[in-house]
Amino acid sequence: MTEQTTENAYLGGRVRIKQPSKGYRAGVDPVLLAAAIEASSGQTALELGTGVGTAALCLAARVPGIQLHGVEIQPAYASLARENATLNDADFSVFEADLTNLPQDLKQRRFDHVFANPPYFDRNTGNAATDAGREQAMGEDTPLKTWLEVAVKRVQPKGYVTFIHRAERLGDLLRNMPTAMGSLQVQPFVPRPGRDANLVLVRARHSGRAPLRLHAPIQLHSGQTHEKDAEDYTDRIKSVLRDGNSLGFPA
């Protein structure tokens, strides 16, 4: 990896992540995604589009003994994800591949959990980023429907698929969810009191039969506005971002 990188701390320093100093850099979204996965020691999990491995490694820090795999199409990011796995002493194997053409080793396996933080923006309605790595991470090239189909093929019966996405893509997530999945749950996030949701977590269970649950929104920031040069996350979100706690997304 010749591109300049920085090393950043997540979960109050429990997780250290090397990532490009320019281009796509992980924020809070992959941490929230990891915190929503109710996994246990001995289970297996696959992350599609793992980037530098932030979500997977945050999950590994919270659930010792989980076996993780990741798929990343960009060689530089996949290389950094492997470095980060070593840096954090995690059982995390990273495959450099397009999710539409997975390695045979992954095609022959099914997992307890499959999760993803797919590119957010439909490039049919927006402008491309100037940095190639950021554009690949943020601009939707592979349709969201394909992400869901691949995820469902790789999850085992009674296993869970969990995605985090922009709130405006909720309709696409629900409409394109394969029929094998049920027991859907939607967790919205609002930035501040009285604001519209800007993020959603969607979780579904293979062969699940429970009705759809739309949870009360979780507020990310305290107060109506950002009034000082400091973090203003709510206590619940700080416990996730700093202490590595579960989000408490009900099973």
TrEMBL record:
<dbReference type="GO" id="GO:0003676">
    <property type="term" value="F:nucleic acid binding"/>
</dbReference>
<keyword id="KW-0808">Transferase</keyword>
<dbReference type="InterPro" id="IPR007848">
    <property type="entry name" value="Small_mtfrase_dom"/>
</dbReference>
<dbReference type="InterPro" id="IPR029063">
    <property type="entry name" value="SAM-dependent_MTases_sf"/>
</dbReference>
<dbReference type="InterPro" id="IPR050210">
    <property type="entry name" value="tRNA_Adenine-N(6)_MTase"/>
</dbReference>
<protein>
    <submittedName>
        <fullName>tRNA1(Val) (Adenine(37)-N6)-methyltransferase</fullName>
        <ecNumber>2.1.1.223</ecNumber>
    </submittedName>
</protein>
<dbReference type="GO" id="GO:0008757">
    <property type="term" value="F:S-adenosylmethionine-dependent methyltransferase activity"/>
</dbReference>
<keyword id="KW-0949">S-adenosyl-L-methionine</keyword>
<dbReference type="InterPro" id="IPR002052">
    <property type="entry name" value="DNA_methylase_N6_adenine_CS"/>
</dbReference>
<dbReference type="Pfam" id="PF05175">
    <property type="entry name" value="MTS"/>
</dbReference>
<dbReference type="GO" id="GO:0032259">
    <property type="term" value="P:methylation"/>
</dbReference>
<keyword id="KW-0489">Methyltransferase</keyword>
<feature type="domain" description="Methyltransferase small">
    <location>
        <begin position="32"/>
        <end position="124"/>
    </location>
</feature>
<dbReference type="GO" id="GO:0008170">
    <property type="term" value="F:N-methyltransferase activity"/>
</dbReference>
